[in-house]
Design a protein that fits this description.
globular, alpha/beta, two-stranded antiparallel sheet, about 35% helix, TIM Barrel
Length: about 260
């Protein structure tokens, strides 16, 4: 059975990677970028979570501010008020709390980037599980955020969906290479999606065998980060379920949205 995160939603999935940024003055993962993704018609927004010095979860990809604001400090060393000021002319800072409250119709794909953010992310998404997918490159962080959401969930609420981390993905792929259905199955237990690049260096990650195995276990396959329309169409024709794109507007136009 599909997790509610995927039910009554457009298909194939178009995940707006860090929102939608077409104006160079607007930063990725900003309030304005999330709003732009919503205006473009996106149902899903992919974003990243870090924790400020005073304990607020913010949507931000990098561990430090250098690339986005020119400030070399780490996010964990900056208070929310100062970070808000730094992002004021870059599209506006957005916290996870604000994202869930102000964009109540969006579904969020949240990558927990810092171990110290996992518990706080779980607290905030508890009660919003039907429209949240939690992931992390590190399976330990992903599981910590899921455990926190479970501890704080209101009675009768839905647990968030989840996408596998690197270790789980590697184990599933090794199971395919070794022709071990048992290893593939054990790797995909409790996983709702595999979110992967098409290639990792010279190694092809997305293959018909991977897609077939994932689908056999009720798991979706989402590919990142795809910005070329021809690649979008090709991957969907292969059978992938979702495209993570910097240009959700182009992806939506290219793929359309068909019900499933």
């Amino acid at each position: 059975m599909k997790h509610p995160y995927f039910v009554d939603a457009p298909y194939p999935r178009v995940l707006a990677h860090r929102g939608l940024t077409v104006d160079p003055a607007i930063a990725e993962n900003s309030y304005s970028s999330v709003a732009a993704a919503q205006r473009a018609g996106a149902t899903y927004v992919e974003s990243d979570c870090h924790l400020t010095r005073d304990g607020e979860v913010v949507l931000f990809h990098d561990a430090d501010l250098r690339r986005v604001t020119g400030d070399p400090r780490r996010i964990v060393d900056v208070d929310l008020a100062e970070l808000t000021a730094l992002m004021a002319d870059r599209g506006g800072l957005i916290t996870l709390r604000t994202a869930l409250e102000d964009f109540a119709t969006l579904r969020f794909n949240l990558d927990v980037k810092a171990a110290d953010a996992a518990d706080a992310v779980g607290v905030l998404v508890a009660g919003h599980g039907e429209r949240v997918l939690l992931t992390s490159f590190a399976d330990a962080r992903r599981r910590a955020a899921l455990a926190s959401a479970a501890r704080h969930a209101p009675s009768g609420s839905v647990a968030p969906a989840t996408s596998a981390g690197r270790e789980t993905i590697a184990r599933a792929i090794w199971g395919l290479v070794a022709r071990s259905p048992r290893l593939v199955t054990s790797s995909l237990v409790g996983v709702d999606a595999l979110q992967v690049p098409e290639r990792q260096g010279p190694v092809r990650v997305v293959t018909p065998r991977l897609i077939e195995a994932a689908h056999a276990h009720g798991v979706e396959v989402h590919v990142w980060t795809v910005n070329d329309p021809a690649d979008m169409r090709r991957l969907v024709d292969m059978g992938v379920d979702g495209i993570v794109s910097d240009r959700a507007d182009i992806a939506l136009e290219t793929l359309g949205q068909r019900p499933r």
